[in-house]
Design goal:
The complex is a heterodimer of chains A (176) and B (120).
Chain A (H helix, E strand, L loop, with lengths): L2 H12 L12 H17 L17 H9 L1 H5 L9 H12 L7 H16 L5 H11 L5 H15 L7 H11 L3
Chain B lengths: L2 H13 L7 H12 L4 E2 H8 L3 H13 L3 E8 L2 E8 L1 H33 L1
Antiparallel strand pairs in B: 1-3, 2-3
The chains are: A mainly alpha (176), B alpha+beta (120).
Chain lengths: 176, 120
């Protein structure tokens, strides 16, 4: 099954309707297609597109070629690909990440932070902030900080919640 | 360098628009070809690391020559200029690449000859 069918299935599930045919219109729709595809890939959906963090990143030239070549399919959400339960869980996680589909700058900050965290998992928050500032100087500090928090939420896995952490969280929750 | 190659180099350079063959303009066209959805002004500025004045002047020239287009896009509460390459711009960039390839061929041939002389 081609990659683009998987991307279309994801967009359909997330109710994103980009307009591809007219290149001068709907920059927003194409922007969200790129960033959603990247976050979906980073969270585990098997897409073979390569993304670059630079300039308009995370961005995939191959993905853009695919959606311009399949503009009709993309605009009508025509895909035969059936999402698996695991893929639906990933998309639900993206869907529940509030604010990223309302603010393009927040989506940009979040997607770039996810990219940097995936590339260097041990990157500290301070270093992540510095790197994000270097790549996206036009983002405000607040946007960067919220983006980093959202990225950490997206990349958080249930197995990180060890018994020790759960116990500590319960203690905090039960505090008056 | 053979006579044919010199002829080809001069012939292809005649077809180029000399106004386009500058570092900033070639880079802009190259970036806009890769980022087919267009690039925001602020992203271009960060990528090229040049002053607003220089960037605006170069973008204006490329736009006047019909190689790029500018559209205003609302990003959150702000209106941001987004630049895209046109078909004419893509053709011009292809011509430049072909011209550079010709120079590369000639230069590399020279290197090979140098190597042959040195290894003799």
């Amino acid at each position: 099954m081609p990659n683009i069918d998987k991307v279309i299935a994801c967009l359909k599930y997330l109710e994103i309707n980009p307009k591809i045919k007219d290149k001068n219109k709907d920059y927003r729709g194409r922007f969200y297609t790129q960033k959603t595809a990247y976050i979906a890939k980073a969270l585990g959906i098997n897409l073979t597109y390569c993304f670059t963090p630079y300039v308009s990143g995370p961005y995939s030239h191959d993905l853009s070629c695919d959606y311009y070549a399949n503009a009709d399919k993309l605009e009508t959400h025509n895909s035969k690909y059936k999402l698996s339960n695991q893929e639906i869980q990933i998309l639900d996680k993206i869907k529940s990440c509030s604010g990223i589909y309302e603010s393009m700058t927040l989506m940009e900050a979040t997607a770039t932070s996810v990219y940097l965290k995936k590339q260097t998992p041990n990157l500290s928050d301070d270093d992540l902030f510095v790197e994000l500032k270097r790549l996206k100087p036009h983002l405000t500090d607040t946007e960067k900080l919220i983006g980093i928090t959202k990225a950490k939420m997206l990349l958080f896995k249930a197995e990180y919640l060890t018994d020790e952490i759960k116990k500590e969280l319960t203690t905090w929750d039960n505090m008056d | 360098m053979t006579e044919d190659q010199i002829h080809k180099l001069l012939q292809t350079s005649d077809k180029l628009n000399s106004k386009t063959v500058t570092l900033t303009r070639c880079l802009t066209l190259g970036l806009l070809t890769y980022f087919a959805d267009g690039i925001q002004y602020r992203e271009l500025k960060n990528a090229l690391k040049i002053s607003d004045g220089k960037l605006i002047a170069n973008l204006y020239e490329l736009k006047t020559m019909g190689y790029i287009t500018k559209t205003e896009v609302q990003i959150d509460q702000r209106l941001i200029d987004v630049y895209s390459i046109t078909e004419k711009g893509r053709t011009e960039l292809t011509k430049i690449i072909e011209w550079i390839k010709t120079i590369d061929k000639i230069a590399n041939q020279g290197e090979k000859k140098k190597c042959q002389i040195l290894t003799k």
